[in-house]
Amino acid sequence: MDAPRTIWQISGGPSSRSFARLFLDHGVGLLGPGGVGRWTPERKDDDYAGGYVRRFASEVRPGDVILLRKGQSKICAVGLVASEYLFFDQFDDVNGWDLQHGRRVHWCELPQDYDFGNSAFGANPPRLSRINNRMVVDYAERFVSNPPTHWQTAPLPPLPASEPKLGDEEIPGFLQDIIAQARDMWPLMWDRTKYPEHPTEDELIVHFVVPVLRALGWHPEQIAIKWRFIDVTVFKALPRTPENSAFVIEVKRLGAGVEGALPQGKRYVEALGVPRDVLVTDGIRYRVYDCATGHEPAAYANLINLKKSALCLFTRIKRP
Description:
Layout lengths: L6 E5 L8 H7 L1 E4 L20 H7 L6 E6 L3 E8 L4 E2 L13 E15 L12 E3 L3 H12 L30 H15 L10 H15 L7 E5 L2 E6 L9 E7 L10 H11 L4 E5 L3 E6 L5 E7 L7 H8 L3
C-alpha cells in the first residue's frame, strides 16, 4: 500500500506583492531568501532566516500535494510536486523578492479562490508548512483523487530564461552615484536596530526618486512634489499644467510592493485628464506603465539588482 501523500501549503505572497501568478504560469513553487545561494545540508537555518528553505529542500518529496495559499485562509490552486529541490537563478527578483529555492509543480488553478475559514492555516501562516488540519487534508486528498486528473501528468510549462545582469562597468556614468547610494542604504534601511521605523515615502522621494530624475537630466523646476496631490509629477516644459506633464510617479513605502501602486497612479492620470505614463516606485524598484497600451507594464529596474533590461527604463524616463 502506498504511503499517504504529505500535504503542504506555500505562500503566494502578500496581496500587494503577489507572485502566485508566476508560480502558475511557470509550474514552480518558490521560496526565499535566495541571495545567499543554494541550500546544502551543511548550511545553517540562520542563513535563510529560519528553517523554511531547509524543509522545502529536504523534506518535501515529489508526489506530495502542495496548496498555493493566498492570505490567511484561501487557496487559489492545488499542486503536485514534480521535482527534487532546484535552485533557479532566474527568480532572483520576483516583485522584489529573491525566490531562487524551488520545485517544479503541476498546478491545477481553481476557478475561484477556496476559503477554508480563518483558522485553517493558523493566525499567522508561515511561508511553508505541513498541513495537519483535517479539513484541509481531506479537501486536498479528495481533490487529487477525483477527476479531472489530467493536470497531474500534463507537460510542465517552460521556465523563463535567466536575465543577464548589468555589470558595474556597464552602469552609465550619470547613474553610478545613485546606484552606489542605493546599495549602501538598502541594508541599513532594513536594519531595525538602525531604522526602528521604516523610512517614509517622502524620505524615499528625497533620497532616491529626485536624485534618479536629476541624474536622468530633469531640472528642478520640472520636478513637482505633491502637485495636485500627486507624489511626483515630471514636466516636459513650463508652465506646470496637465498638458505639459511628462509622466506621474506614485511612491510607496519601502518593500510595500510597487505593483500595487498602479491604481493610484491611474487615478492621478484620470484627474489630469490627459494620457500619461505612470511610474511606481519604492525608491529602489521602479516600474513604468505605458498609457498607450492601457497602462500595461513597459519597463522595470531594481537599483540593487540591475539587469540589462533596466537600461530600457532609464532610457524611457530620461529627459529628451
